[in-house]
Amino acid sequence: MTQPVNHLAIIMDGNGRWAAARGMPRTYGHKAGVEALRRTVKSVPKFGIKHLTLYAFSSENWSRPADEIKDLLSLLKLYIRRDLAELAANGVRVRIIGRREGLRPDILALIESAEEKTAHNTELNLNIAFNYGGRDEIVRAMQTVIDDPSGPVAKGERVTEQHISAALDTVASPDPDLILRTSGEVRLSNFLLWQVAYAEMVFLDCMWPDFDEHHLAEAIEIFTRRDRRFGGVEAVKGAAQ
Ligand code: FPP
After folding, report:
1. What is the residue range of 110's domain?
2. Mean pLDDT across 156-181
3. Is residue 53 part of a domain?
4. CB-based pocket (< 6 A), ligand 1
């Protein structure tokens, strides 16, 4: 039986090219990107999606020009400030995944308040990857497992996949069923490296600011036509894990 996508993860790519095609600065594209993000958060529950993970700012994005970084940080702040009440009212639980250490105190405070204010919501789990890198997440998880005084290392036991999965930032969500990237680029860019082991990947040509419910429906349609075998031989049509 065809199952809906339970966890969708998106690499929102193409803001800069979308803006350049209009003769505008990159920030213009990022602002339009936030509108696409807002549309997407509203649309996904209609498709039965319970977990949505969005790649907003990678650990590598710090190498961008200082002005662009400043604008991206302002957009994150603006998004949380402007939309938090609505997200909370719509049952969205917000979590920020990524490295917290070294973040500006104002950003940290905002992240913590967004998580606290939505902690009891259950309609949609929204994970925003900020200052996030997949390898960095795995390294931090390994350190957590090693340092855990009641964990396997302290007890002289073997480390298992379950120990590592439980120490990742995404512990509250199942592995993604579908990874979607816009803009025609075909790579993962250090996103959810551990979690994508059996995810289906869909790459769409549209630039992120143009992304809407039709593109979302198209990606899910492609997903449902895939045979998921999870390393076995029996096809599991678009099965959620
Ligand atoms: C990729 O476009 C997108 C990003 C680096 C960040 C995604 C950011 C947003 C959707 C807006 C910010 C939202 C929040 C909540 C922080 P790109 O700049 O790499 O585009 P390009 O590949 O065309 O240059």
Report:
1. 7-132+176-224
2. 98
3. yes
4. 12-17, 26, 30, 33-34, 37, 56-57, 61, 72, 75-76, 79, 183, 208
